[in-house]
Amino acid sequence: MSDDEKKLLTDVFNAVEGIAVHIQGIKSFNDFKAAYTVKRAVERELLIIGEAIGDLRKLNPAIAISDMRKIIALRNIIAHEYDSVQDDNIWLIIVRHLPGLKDEVDKLIKS
Fold first, then answer.
1. Ramachandran region of residue 67, left (φ > 0), alpha (ψ -120 to 50) or beta?
2. The pTM is what?
């Protein structure tokens, strides 16, 4: 794996870790929904994840990450259709999908 690929994967990993930091103390969807600055910080981290994965896909299309297209699509929605971002979808991504993404990226970095 090239240094550029590892850097992009590390960016993804760090952004997932950043989300974990941002949501410390957030116990429920209602807490998340009420925390404006937390939501915006999480969205920023998701933008970074989507951008890094998009760049990784261009750099090496053979690297497989689950839901790669959905991750890139979410980045595009947050960046260009920000008024259609739904808090419940972001919350589900945080609790259901980010732990798996973190594990997947960690394994790729270590391989």
1. left
2. 0.93
Angle (deg, nearest 10), helices 68-80 and 36-59:
130
Backbone angles phi, psi at 25, to 5 degrees: 90, -10
Long-range contacts of 92-96 (CB under 8 A, 24+ apart): 93/46, 94/19, 94/23, 94/32, 94/42
Look at phi and psi of residue 25 and say left if phi exceeds 0, alpha if psi is from -120 to 50, else beta. Answer: left
Q: What is the pLDDT of residues 41-86, one digit of tens each?
A: 999 999 999 999 999 999 999 998 999 999 999 999 999 998 889 9
User: How many other C-beta atoms are found inside a 10 Å radius of the C-beta of residue 53?
Assistant: 26
What does the alpha-carbon distance between residue 23 and residue 94 come to, in Å, rounded to a whole number?
9
